[in-house]
Amino acid sequence: MDGRYENYSDSEKKGYVVMTNNVVSSTVTALLDRAKAKYVDTAKNDILLALSGFPDLTPDVEHFVYPDRTYTLAFRLKGTIPVLYKGNTYNIPVALYLWDTHPYYAPICYVCPTPNMMLKESKTVLFFLVRLTVKPSKPSFSGTMHAELASIRQTHADLRAGQQKLKVIVDDLAQEQKRMEDALIVYQEKKAEITSLLSTSSSEKIVEIDQVIDACTPLHRQLLRCYVYDCAIDDAIYFLGQALSRGRISLTNYLKEVRQLSRRQFIYRATLQKCRIKAKMSV
C-alpha cells in the first residue's frame, strides 16, 4: 500500500482496501453493462482476478475495429504487465479486449509499443519455412463424396417414409373430422327436436300423474285395475294385523274388516284370472 497510509491503523487500512475493491467492482460491472456482456458475473470475476494480479491495468470500453472495418464496443484492459527477460523485468504495454460472450470466446491481446520502444526481430523466427517449396497434390474427395451421397440417400429415404406416415395421419384426421361433422349434424337435429317438443309440451295444460300411465286396450286396463286392487287389499290386511297385535283394534273389528276385504279380493282375483285368459296370457 502507498506509504502515505503507513500511519493508519490496520482496521483503517482494511477499510480503505474494501472501499477500493467495491469501487473497482462497481466500475467493472458498469463497463460490462455498456459493452453488453452476456455473462457479467463470470466476466467480472475474471477481470477482478486479473486486476488483483496486475494492478497497472485499467478497465475501460473501446470500439474494436475488425479487418473489414466494422466495429463493436468491447471491454478493454489497458496498461503494463511485468515481463521477466534475461534476469531483468520489463513493463510491456498491452491491451486486452474481452468479448460479450466471455468466457466462451477467448479475449484478444495486443502489445502496444510506445514511440521510444525498439522492436527487434528474434533469431528464432522461422517465417521462411512457411513458404511452400513443393506444390501439394490435390486431396481426394471421392470417399467423402460417396459418404455424403449415401447420407443424402438415407436422409431422402427417411423423409419419404416420414411423408407416408404424415399422409396416413392426415387421412385419419380427415375421416375423424367427417365423423365429427356427421355426429354434430345428428346432435343439432335431435336438439331441435327436443326443443320443439319442450315448447309444445309447455303450452299444454298440466296432466294428472295418474292419467299418464294407462293400458293400451280396455281389457288390459281392467286387468291392471284388478291387479292394483288385489295388491292394495293385501296391504290393508297386513296393516290390520299390525293394528291388532298392537291393540289398536279389537278382534271382532279385525275379523269383520278382513272378511269384507277377502270377499272383494276374491272377486278381483277371479276377474283378473278371466282377463288373463281372455288376453291369452299365462294364468
Automatic annotation (TrEMBL):
The keyword Phosphoprotein belongs to this UniProt entry's keyword annotation: no
Subcellular localization: Endosome
InterPro entries: ESCRT-I_UEV_domain (IPR052070), ESCRT_assembly_dom (IPR037202), SB_dom (IPR017916), UBQ-conjugating_enzyme/RWD (IPR016135), UEV_N (IPR008883)
GO function terms (MF aspect): ubiquitin binding
Pfam families: UEV, Vps23_core
Residue ranges annotated for the UEV domain, each copy included: 24-118
GO biological process, one term: endosome to lysosome transport
Keyword Hydrolase on entry: no
Primary location group: other
UniProtKB keywords: Coiled coil, Endosome, Protein transport, Transport
SB domain boundaries: 217-283
CC per GO annotation: ESCRT I complex
Signal peptide residue numbers: none
Similarity comment: Belongs to the ubiquitin-conjugating enzyme family. UEV subfamily.
Name of the molecule in the record: Vps23 core domain protein
Organism of this sequence: Onchocerca flexuosa
